[in-house]
Amino acid sequence: MQKILVSACLLGEKVRYDGEACRQGGVLEQWQREGRIVSLCPEVAGGLPIPRPPAEVRGGNAEAVLRGQQHVERENGDDVSDAFIDGAEAALALCIRHKIQIAILKEGSPSCGVNRVNDGTFAKKKIRGMGVTARLLQRHGIAVFSELQTALALQALTGLEDRMQAE
Ligand code: SF4
C-alpha cells in the first residue's frame, strides 16, 4: 500500500510554534484508518522546541536556504536555518524509508508551505513560495500538496496505484 507523508499538526498533534494543532479531517481520516499515513513535524524533528518563536524564510526562498544562500530567521534575527534543514532531511529520509511519493503539508508554514509562505519580514505578508521541507521533498520527485489540495492528492494516489497494479 502506498504511504503518504502528512504534516503532524494536520493530524491533531500539538506541535505548532504556538503549541497548537490545526487538525484537518476528510480524506486524511480515511487514510489514517487505512494505515497509509506517516506523520512528522519537521521543525520538531530538526530539534526545535514546542512552543517556539515563529520563524520565516528570508525572501520566501526555500531553495536558497537549501543552497546555503539564504536563512530562516526568528524576528530577533536568530538564525534557525540548520534546524529547518535538519528537519527537511528527516522528512526526506522518512519518505525514502517508506517509499513515499506523495506528501500533504500544512500551507503557509516556513517548513511545510506548498504554495505560499510569509515573505520574511514578519509583517504577516504571504507571497508565493515553499517551505524548506516542501521544497526538499519536491526536489527529490515527491509530489507535495497542501491540506487545501487533498482532491488533487487523491487523484495522484489513484493514478499511482493504478500504474503500480498495471506493472
Ligand atoms: Fe510542524 Fe510543519 Fe505543522 Fe509547522 S506546519 S507544526 S513544521 S508539521
Automatic annotation (TrEMBL):
<dbReference type="InterPro" id="IPR007553">
    <property type="entry name" value="2-thiour_desulf"/>
</dbReference>
<dbReference type="Pfam" id="PF04463">
    <property type="entry name" value="2-thiour_desulf"/>
</dbReference>
<protein>
    <submittedName>
        <fullName>Uncharacterized protein</fullName>
    </submittedName>
</protein>
